Here is the input.
Amino acid sequence: MARDPKKMQLFEHVTTWIGSVPSLVLHTLFFVGSFIAGILHLADWNTVLLVLTTLVSLEAIYLSIFIQMTVNRHAEELEDVSEDIDEIQEDIDEIQEDVDEIQGDVEELSEEDEAEMNGRAKEQVSLEQLTQDVRRVLEDLETLKKQ
Here is the structure.
């Protein structure tokens, strides 16, 4: 249901103003003035009460409509926020999946690096062993040459 933002803003301002201290003061002064007019016989009591009752009833009707419109607007905004939260949660879930995949890749690379390092260490040990064996053979050859 498309709504005119300016009208909604007007209704919001009216609802906000009715709930303010200046509104309370104005209403109080109006009611006190009405009762003073009745007490001082500036107006007939029946007329004063009829006008007050009618005004209060109309004000209550319009206020309830304004308040309901405000509640409806807030409900729509909450629904929009809820949808946004759901979308954000989906994005977070996708990011978490990506992070899990990256973590798996990092672990796999770490294992490969560790295996490669172990292979190099074994190669180094083998190389040192071969070097020692060659030295022994050379020493044995030197010994044999001298004999």
